[in-house]
Amino acid sequence: MAEENAQGRKPPARHKSLFKQITKGDLVTIHDEAGERKGRATSREYGNWVLVLLFGTGTALATPQNVIGVTKPKPIEEIPEAGQHLVYDDGRPDHANSRAEILEVTSRSMLVQFENNASPTLIYFDDPEWMDYITFEAKGGKPHSAAEGEAEGKRRE
Question: For the chain, what is the HEC assignment?
């Protein structure tokens, strides 16, 4: 017999369909005994997804029964090239406008060297904890608009 809640109705079936949509890197919202929490899906454990929580510390398990929302990370529009620069800014004072040079690029990741860090950093394109805060500079320098490019072209003529 199907399980029923306090109102005598079956629990919504949407939880199972949302659970099946989860992939690594997704922002997942769950509701369990600790309340509503959000985290990034990082791996599978015993058929459930392990979430690294965004607020607070620790991890949580996303199960077919407790998932109430899934948000996919934004896709990368164009894979950058080695030698190109990027700016990382997640809003924290010590990370504001951190500039880096891209040293190496593969189809899945890039190795970057931040100006304020001695060691290079490997960043995966499907990692929203990095990619949500990165802006790529135009090749050869700072980002510029199409209007600036037209003005520059007229000056050369």
Answer: CCCCCCCCCCCCCHHHHHHHHCCCCCEEEEEECCEEEEEEEEEEECCEEEEEECCCCCEEEECCCCEEEEECCCCCCCCCCCCCEEEECCCCHHHCCEEEEEEEECCCEEEEEECCCCCCEEEECCCHHHHCCEEECCCCCCCCCHHHHHHHHHHHC
